[in-house]
Design goal:
Immunoglobulin-like, single chain, 4-stranded antiparallel sheet, elongated, 4-stranded mixed sheet, 147 residues, alpha+beta
Length: 147
């Protein structure tokens, strides 16, 4: 003989809460036992300090601005070694514009990053190159200034 369970309306929130908690516990268990612990690894800066220009890169954080001499474009350069680790304490130069380039940090930081802000009163598009120790990085970025 099968007994019928009689649930009244007052017990439904308790059951829903129990089901949600059970689901969360299951997700917690799966996250801690099935999914790999380190999907993202943290790396320390390179100990060799040798920049590999072909492995380093240039990235535009903001590449469209007004040509009013005040609004800025922002470019970041990341210097990496042969293992893809950041190299600290190095300088980079941007080329492709006459004037209007201001370095935010003079030396690469712990992430290998050197940041620049660019301003212009001249409307147009400018192809920007990054140069480390006489060698251009393989990427270029086009920044735009318009009124």
């Amino acid at each position: 003989m099968v007994k019928k369970l009689n649930l009244n309306i007052k017990s439904k929130p308790v059951l829903i809460t129990a089901a949600v908690i059970g689901g969360l516990l299951l997700l917690f268990f799966l996250a801690n036992s099935v999914i790999p612990k380190a999907l993202v690894t943290l790396t320390r800066a390179s100990s060799s300090g040798e920049v590999v220009v072909s492995g380093s890169y240039l990235l535009g954080e903001k590449i469209l601005a007004k040509a009013d001499g005040k609004d800025t474009n922002r470019i970041n350069v990341f210097l990496l070694d042969k293992n893809g680790k950041p190299v600290t304490g190095k300088t980079v130069e941007l080329t492709g514009m006459t004037g209007g380039i201001k370095q935010i940090n003079a030396l690469s930081d712990a992430t290998g990053k050197v940041s620049f802000v660019l301003t212009s009163t001249t409307e147009g598009q400018f192809k920007i190159n990054a140069n480390y120790s006489g060698a251009d990085l393989p990427q270029t970025i086009v920044v735009t200034f318009r009124n």
